[in-house]
Write a structure and sequence with these properties.
Elements lengths: L11 H21 L5 H23 L4 E4 L13 E9 L1 H5 L6 E8 L2 E9 L4 E4 L14 E5 L5 H10 L2 E5 L2 H9 L5 E4 L5 H13 L3 E3 L18 E4 L4 H18 L1
Parallel strand pairs: 1-2, 6-7, 6-8
Antiparallel strand pairs: 2-3, 3-4, 4-5, 8-10, 9-10
């Protein structure tokens, strides 16, 4: 049996990818155990993966700050330049339903910027990471926009209508962002409310692949804030930014006029 991995010697990106991949395997094992009824599975998976990620990061990077969806917030992180932001299960419903569109997010924000990250898609057997960018397939003639499969935001559907984009319903935020990288979609516009852990790792990975990432008004996404609510997000190819922004302005103007 091999000895423990020296995580302290790993690069931040390699550590993020390793932890996301292992947490994904743990989650698959929790689900496959069959001991949790459907209503309890999501919570069991979240808490189990969270314990692994939190302990692993505190062991590997004890001087860094940490913010997790499943942990009580800690003001000490606000004094740190380097803060790990994790979401043990992004898409709890999809995880419980044994779909593939859920994710594990492990990311590192440095001075508020999403710099390092990995997004594991355990149901698809993939981990996308900032240090191993891949080429993004060419966009088709008819653009595709990923939206929530249960409650698509009005702004997203309004923009899709104006640019004649096909809607692609999907689960977690991480799965949606990675769909743009994988060439399964071209635009991810969200305005229905999110928190820092929902977007930080996906944004780091998407930016490393050359995609545009911002708030829907074009302003930067800033992390490790005292208020972790970060409600909107745009991830798309850079050549589509003006098209999306113009359509969004037209939708907002029309909505305001109708109010």
């Amino acid at each position: 049996m091999s000895g423990p991995i020296d995580t302290a010697a790993m690069s931040d990106a390699a550590l993020a990818a390793h932890l996301a991949e292992v947490a994904g395997r743990i989650l698959l094992e929790v689900r496959a155990s069959g001991v949790f009824p459907a209503k309890a599975l999501g919570k069991a998976g979240d808490q189990t993966a969270n314990q692994f990620l939190v302990h692993a990061l505190r062991c590997a990077r004890p001087e860094d700050g940490l913010l997790s969806e499943e942990e009580k917030d800690n003001p000490a992180r606000l004094e740190k330049s380097r803060v790990w932001i994790v979401d043990p299960v992004d898409g709890t419903r999809e995880y419980g339903e044994e779909r593939a569109d859920w994710a594990v997010h492990v990311g590192l924000a440095i001075d508020g910027e999403a710099v390092i990250g990995a997004v594991a898609l355990p149901g698809a057997g993939r981990v996308l990471r900032t240090d191993e960018p891949q080429s993004i397939p060419a966009a088709p003639e008819k653009l595709r926009m990923v939206v929530s499969r249960t409650r698509p935001a009005a702004e997203a559907t309004g923009v899709a209508e104006r640019i004649d984009a096909e809607l692609v319903p999907m689960g977690s935020a991480g799965a949606k962002a990675m769909a743009v990288i994988l060439g399964e979609a071209d635009i991810y516009l969200h305005s229905g409310g999110q928190y820092e852990w929902d977007s930080m790792a996906p944004v780091a990975v998407a930016a490393a692949h050359g995609l545009h990432c911002s708030r829907i008004d074009g302003s930067p996404l800033v992390y490790n804030q005292s208020d972790v609510y970060l409600p909107d997000l745009l991830i798309c190819r850079k050549e589509h930014v003006d098209l999306v922004m113009n359509a969004l302005r037209a939708f907002n103007a029309e909505t305001k006029a109708d109010a």
